[in-house]
Amino acid sequence: MADLLQVRRDTAANWTSNDPTLAAGEFGFETDTGLLKVGDGSTAWTSLGYPPSPMAYRDEASVSYTLVLGDANKVVRCTGASAAITIPVEASVNYALGTEISIRQAGTGTLVLTTTSLTVNGTVPSWAQHVEVKFRKVGSDTWDVV
What we know:
146 residues; mainly beta; 2 domains; 6-stranded mixed beta sheet; 3-stranded mixed beta sheet
């Protein structure tokens, strides 16, 4: 008879609001972000980090695009000419602290970033073709340029 391994799972918002402490080696899976944390037996969920993993990427051909929760820890590769990207406020999309999103301009023209009501720490370089910039969420509506 085969053994069954059950992994605890819930949405990122529920994990954050309940803030459990996972047993040492216990996995917790965020069903809406696809991210995983591993417990150490003493650290609450919100203080656990996500293990590093290679960033997946996806092409976005739109000229105007607002990031979604599924873009967390991915490279969004913009193929439209002179695209405009919006990082949404936390009230619209609540990314977990530590979330990283890289945005790459693969199309011709300059990429424009919209960050209404956000704090972005650091300087976003001129986003010409083949330039990639990574952002990391460090607080409520606060992102660092990495």
